[in-house]
Design a protein that fits this description.
There is one protein chain. By secondary structure, this protein is α/β, with parallel strands linked by helices. The protein has 2 domains: about 130 residues, 2-Layer Sandwich (Nucleotidyltransferase, domain 5); about 70 residues, Double Stranded RNA Binding Domain. Helices cover about 35% and strands about 20% of the residues. The chain is built from 8 helices and 8 strands; from the N terminus they run αβββαβαβααααβββα. The chain has a 5-stranded mixed β-sheet with strand order 3-2-1-4-5, with helices on both faces. The longest helix has 20 residues. It is elongated and about 70 Å long. It starts with 17 loop residues before the first helix and ends in an 8-residue tail after the last helix.
Length: about 230
């Protein structure tokens, strides 16, 4: 069921309290603010979003919040209020200007920002925020890898045995498993959907060999060279 769209909440009982924000000193800064979708694991049905507020050019992250629903204007207002009143770096302050990507959900907030003396601009690209977003993804990836089970030397050699498959899973994914009790099914998928499938294997080795042959053929059709191990 779609999440009900809520009206913007402002005032003393809301996170975005204009009277309190007006009392903050104003700095000659431009901020960038946005919500970006986070990568969605196959086991996760919902899309989560990361909200960021950064100082343009400098890159300091002032506020960061993850939401488990499509962000609305109140999510943005709360994020910006946190950046102004309780920033992650520096003291509380208002910027001269905040840049946003075009999004009709944000427009309801713009007049209130202007009332507290903050100029609003809309741009197609927020370069500083994009860098901060990718930094967040990199840190999250490194944190997951720190808890990863390290393969043995023999296990690590699998990439030499199946170089095309190793290259494939850097941008796509594979599925290997039982097909309703009738042996293995091996599939290679990319973000466009199914690219290769073989339902004849009976063992994991046969499934991997079939996938290696199938994705190698796909690479050849696309004119993509396979990185053979040295």
């Amino acid at each position: 069921m779609p999440r009900e769209r809520k009206k913007l909440a402002v005032g003393k009982s809301a996170a975005f309290d204009k009277s309190r924000l007006k009392r903050l000193r104003q700095e000659d800064e431009t901020w960038e603010a946005d919500f970006r979708a986070l990568p969605q694991p196959l086991s996760q049905n919902e899309t989560f979003y990361l909200g960021l507020v950064v100082v343009q050019g400098e890159g300091s992250v002032l506020a960061e919040e993850q939401v488990e629903h499509t962000p609305g204007v109140n999510d943005l207002a709360t994020l910006l209020a946190s950046a102004m009143r309780r920033p992650l770096s520096g003291r509380g302050r208002r910027p001269e200007c905040i840049r946003f990507r075009k999004n009709p959900r944000w427009q309801e907030l713009f007049p209130y920002l202007q009332e507290v003396g903050v100029e609003v601009t809309v741009d197609s690209d927020l370069a500083t925020l994009r860098t901060a977003y990718h930094d967040h993804l990199r840190r999250a990836h490194e944190a997951r890898r720190a808890r990863m089970v390290k393969p043995t030397a023999e296990q690590a050699a699998v990439e030499k045995l199946f170089p095309a498959l190793a290259q494939w899973v850097r941008d796509g994914h594979i599925e290997v498993g039982d097909q309703e009790g009738f042996g293995f099914v091996a599939r290679a998928l990319d973000y466009g959907g199914l690219v290769f499938e073989d339902d004849r294997p009976d063992t994991l080795a046969e499934a991997l060999a079939a996938l290696e042959r199938g994705v190698r053929a796909w690479f050849e059709e696309q004119g993509i060279a396979v990185d053979e191990p040295g």
